[in-house]
Structure formats: structure tokens, C-alpha cells
Amino acid sequence: MQNYFSIFDLKTDFEIDKIKLEQQYKEQIAQFHPDKFANSTADEKSQALQNTSLINTAYNTLKSDLNRAIYLLELNNIYPFDEKDTQMDAEFLITQIELREKLETLKNETEVEEFIDKINPLEKQHIQNIKESFKMNNLENAKKNVRELRFYQQLILEANKLLDELL
User: Fold this and answer.
1) For residues 115 and 161, is the Cβ–Cβ distance under 8 A?
2) Which string of DSSP letters, residue by residue, matches 116-137?
3) Backbone angles phi, psi at 89, to 5 degrees
4) Which of 3, 116, 133, 146 is deepest in the core (most CB within 10 A)?
5) Coiled coil where (predicted)?
6) Which residue pairs from 108-111 have beta carbons closer than 8 angstroms and sit at least 24 positions apart in sequence?
7) What pLDDT digit, counting tens, does each position of 101-122 carry?
8) Is 113 exposed, middle or buried (0-12, 13-18, 19+ CB in 10 A)?
9) What Å distances lie between residue 110 and 5, 73, 81, 116, CA to CA?
10) Domains and CATH numbers, the chain
11) HEC string of the chain?
């Protein structure tokens, strides 16, 4: 399997140059545009399609803080969402329950917007924690924060969906 970072000539690290990622993505994807393979063999067209798929998967993985962190952990044989690994911080589990219950009680746009405003800093803090964890090569802490970040991002997604329904 090709390392996604190497596809875009990036250092294998949580902190990446997102502008370079975007530029490299555009360059890579342009190389395999279907128009360039209009007169090619079926095998060449198939290979171009496979390359395009790999480039898109790599790009979508690396542009997302959460997906990039998961990918980095997996490169180190750490799988943050392994079904066998159910150990979670008790305080965080209580927080999850409380926040889900709070989300279910929200009745209007203002309440939902205030709820999202409360969660956004938690999301940003977890991204910062992940960044620091990778910097210090503390992969267990990175895993913990990745798991929690996914919860907060899912909660924000659900709150935004509720907000759309209320509008």
C-alpha cells in the first residue's frame, strides 16, 4: 500500500501544509484525467481510474484532521475504533451522555446555535491535543483524543442537522 503522504510529497506527520496538499492533489488528479486517456487501451484507462481513486482517497483522508489522525495511528498499527478496544475514560462517557441528552432537549434555533458554540471549542481543543500528542509521539493519547474528537464532530453534525430541520 502506498503511503498517502508520499503521493503528495508531504512529510508523514499530523501537521501538514494544506495549501501544498491542495496543489499536489490538483497536479496529481490532472495527470489521470479521462481526456488524457481517450485513445488509450482498456488497461491504461483502468489503471488511470485506479490511480484517480487512490489519489481521491488519499486526499480526502489527509485533508480531514480526524481522518489524517486515524490514518497516522493505523500506520503505527493502532486502530482507534477497534471493536475489541472498548476502554474509554469514565468522565468522557458521562460527558457523552449529558451532551446527547442536552441535544435531545433543544427546541429552537438559538438553543441549537448556543449548543454548537459550546461544542466547537471542544472540537478545536481535541485537534490541538492530537497535534501535541503526535509531536510528542504519545500515540495512546492521540488515540484517546481521536476517539473523543469523532464524538464531538458527530455531535456537531447532528446539531447542524437539527438546526436545518428547525429552519
Assistant:
1) no
2) HHHHHHHHHHHHHHHHHHHHTT
3) -65, 125
4) 146
5) none
6) 108/166, 109/163, 109/166, 109/167
7) 999 999 999 999 999 999 999 9
8) middle
9) 41, 38, 34, 10
10) 4-63 (1.10.287.110), 90-166 (1.20.1280.20)
11) CCCHHHHCCCCCCCCCCHHHHHHHHHHHHHHCCHHHHCCCCHHHHHHHHHHHHHHHHHHHHHHCHHHHHHHHHHHCCCCCCCCCCCCCCHHHHHHHHHHHHHHHHCCCHHHHHHHHHHHHHHHHHHHHHHHHHHHCCCHHHHHHHHHHHHHHHHHHHHHHHHHHHHC
At residue 1 the predicted structure's pLDDT band, cuts being 50, 70 and 90, is low
The C-alpha cell 502506498 sits at 2
Provide the residue count of the chain.
Answer: 167
d(CA 26, CA 33): 11
CA-based nearest residue to 55, from 16, 14, 12, 22: 22
CA 129 to chain centroid, in Å, comes to: 15
**SS3 category, 148:** helix
| R_g of the chain computed on alpha carbons | 20
